[in-house]
Design goal:
mainly beta; 653 residues; five-stranded mixed sheet; globular
């Protein structure tokens, strides 16, 4: 804890944006306001609908450019990492309405819906509603919460049609991204304003999705500056109790935002963007949970050569969460980073950076639970350097690097990695990596008390240390045929100082567990014909936890069975005559023994018709094999996820 921070008391402000009204009133108003803006001038950069809906070829997918592995552009096929890209076409053809649902068909990623709004999401094990080993970014903005070193998925939303791609790295990304990028990194990247010109209006409704919609307008400010604004809202029905009754957790949300891109010269670019949201989630027998927040980000880039550039980025993020009779939180995050890429010598490609983050966290405690002290300020100082060395041009690359951080809990942490990529042929890559990553302590680990008044039943530990991972990976990517791509990744992870639940009284958290995971992730895509594409994936995971000799763990070891041992999926995307398309996907998720969740198989499908170049009508079904099934949670408190069918219409002009 920061020694310069004084304990603060008093109430955290209640979420300020207020609940979303039921129905479409908010959406109708947003559409009306947007349609009052003059139509944009057509430019060469404006994306026509036909291009926006174009499906990438397998060759384009194999060489798709990503930036999340090394903070520089590189083809996905050449990266020395297990990475999967969810494209804008994937999002559209899956018919998904949220970011978590778009991650269901990524090998190595566990997506379990907990209730109407909440998800448990992780990569390569250790899943939970407070999963803490996955770093999530929105256009480079971290959505990390210091409460538990994880992500509140119930407020991570975007205008889905404006997402360019979602880059998903399985395995450590700590050398460039820092602490908590332990088992993976998810980076949601939006389209530039230049590629979202004109109007787009979308909306729909169904049995569970009771109403949703949004509108976006993109315009030009001259030949080098572009902007867009958007608004969206939804009204979602409740999940189910095991007996089939409504769980009483229906939710509503509205969100709006903007983005502006300006290129004052061919070598320079400036981006400014932001979002505001408000939401409420019903609770049976109690007042609803209120959620609100907003963010603003600015980024300046300057290119010197094709392999040399400078980037300066800063953002501010506020989140507010009020759960009546339980707790309220207000978190303010200030972040500033500098990244520089250059070539100091032949065969070297260096990326380095510096960063500073300040997190100001205030909690209003209750009789149910407490964080003590209620108010803290954490400061994070970071620096990293990574050098890619071309041992043999276009064939053999060695990447060395490390990140050094100083946090308010444990001081200095180092996170090095070494990666090797060998391309025996242009369409084949054999890669391997060894990394060290840490999961820094959170407020739950150190400041948590349950109940909120003594005598306590469970407490955090003021000496809780960082969890440590040593990861070893090996993978193969290939395009053996012009119409077939394949990828396989294997890993062996060794964990030290994992969180344990120690015997009391009171029970307390400590670093009493060690662990090992190993597994295989495989996927392939086959272009059957110009109109038909098939893809499939399989994940095997084995997680083993051991209690240290000095530990008295009484429950932490059971989390090893909170992740499925087997997962598999298959997808079919078929383009039919008369502007019709049919997409279907089947996924299998193995059992969760610790929670007594049985294995399940789900079918998702979408049929769409594009009556003109200006619009599309679709019907989407999710979980079609059964009326409902549980995905996460202990028997006494779990919710079940019901079959969902909804229609959606999209119009762009």
């Amino acid at each position: 804890m920061d020694p310069h921070r004084n304990t603060r008391s008093g109430s955290a402000p209640r979420a300020g944006l207020g609940p979303v009204p039921r129905g479409a009133c908010g959406l109708a108003l947003a559409v009306l306001l947007l349609t009052m803006v003059p139509a944009p001038a057509r430019t060469e950069e404006a994306v026509e609908p036909a291009k926006a809906l174009k499906q990438l070829s397998l060759e384009e997918l194999f060489d798709l450019e990503v930036t999340s592995v090394s903070k520089k552009p590189e083809p996905v096929s050449k990266t020395a990492a297990a990475i999967h890209v969810v494209t804008t076409d994937d999002i559209r053809r899956m018919g998904v309405l949220s970011i978590p649902e778009a991650l269901r068909y990524v090998p190595g990623v566990e997506v379990a819906r907990v209730d109407s709004r909440s998800y448990a999401i992780t990569a390569r094990g250790f899943n939970g509603t407070t999963a803490n080993k996955l770093l999530v970014l929105m256009d480079g903005r971290s959505v990390y919460t210091p409460l538990y070193s994880g992500v509140f998925w119930d407020v991570q939303d975007a205008f889905m049609e404006d997402i360019e791609q979602i880059e998903v790295i399985r395995g450590p990304g700590a050398t460039v991204w820092g602490a908590n990028a332990v088992n993976g990194v998810i980076n949601v990247i939006s389209k530039s304003a230049a590629n979202t010109q004109g109007f787009l209006v979308t909306g729909g409704a169904g049995d569970v999705e009771r109403g949703f919609g949004g509108a976006r307008y993109g315009g030009a400010l001259g030949s080098r500056a572009f902007f867009r604004v958007y608004a969206k809202a939804f009204d979602r029905g409740p999940s189910k109790l095991p007996n089939g009754q409504d769980a009483g957790d229906a939710s509503r949300m509205h969100q709006g935002g903007f983005r502006a891109d300006w290129t004052p010269s061919p070598a320079a670019g400036i981006t400014v963007q932001g979002d505001l949201y408000g939401s409420d989630i019903d609770r049976r027998g109690s007042d609803p949970t209120d959620l609100s927040g907003g963010n603003a980000l600015a980024r300046w880039t300057r290119a010197f050569t094709d392999h040399s550039n400078l980037q300066l980025q800063g953002y501010y993020d506020r989140t507010e969460r009020a759960i009546p009779s339980t707790f309220s939180e207000r978190l303010d995050t200030y972040d500033l980073t500098l990244n520089h890429r250059f070539a100091p010598a032949a065969r070297h490609d260096v990326v380095w950076g510096l960063g500073f983050r300040l997190l100001d966290d205030d909690v209003q405690n209750s009789a149910a639970l407490a964080f003590l002290p209620p108010g803290v300020t954490h400061r994070l100082y970071t620096g990293f350097v990574q050098d890619e060395i071309a041992l043999e041009a276009d064939r053999l690359y060695l990447t060395l690097g490390s990140k050094v951080e100083h946090n308010s809990y444990t001081g200095f942490e180092y996170q090095p990695s070494v990666r090797l990529a060998w391309m025996p042929k242009p369409d084949q890559t054999l890669w391997g990596a060894a990394s060290r990553a840490v999961r820094a302590p959170s407020r739950i680990d150190r400041d948590f008390f349950f109940p909120g008044q003594p005598p306590y039943f469970l407490v955090g530990d003021s000496t809780f240390d960082s969890e440590v991972l040593y990861a070893y990976e090996l993978g193969w990517k290939s395009r053996p045929l012009s119409d077939l791509t394949t990828s396989i990744s294997t890993f062996y992870n060794v964990y030290d100082k994992l969180r344990s639940l120690e015997a009391g009284p009171p029970l307390f958290l400590a670093n009493g567990l060690d662990g090992r995971t190993y597994g295989v992730e495989a996927e392939g895509t086959y272009q059957v014909s110009r109109m038909w594409r098939l893809s499939a994936g399989y994940t095997f995971l084995r997680l083993i936890l051991d209690v240290e000799p000095t530990s008295t763990d009484v429950g932490g070891q059971s989390q090893g069975d909170d992740s499925p041992r087997h997962q598999a999926f298959g997808r079919s995307s078929l383009t039919l005559p008369h502007n019709l398309s049919l997409d279907a996907a089947v996924r299998y998720v193995g059992e969760l023994p610790n929670q007594k969740i049985p294995a399940y198989t789900a079918l998702d499908a979408r049929v769409a018709w594009q009556p003109s170049k200006m619009g599309e009508i679709a019907v989407v079904g999710q979980g079609l094999f059964d009326s409902r099934h549980p995905e996460f949670g202990k028997p006494g408190t779990r919710r079940e996820i019901g079959r969902s069918i909804y229609g959606k219409a999209t119009l762009w002009f």
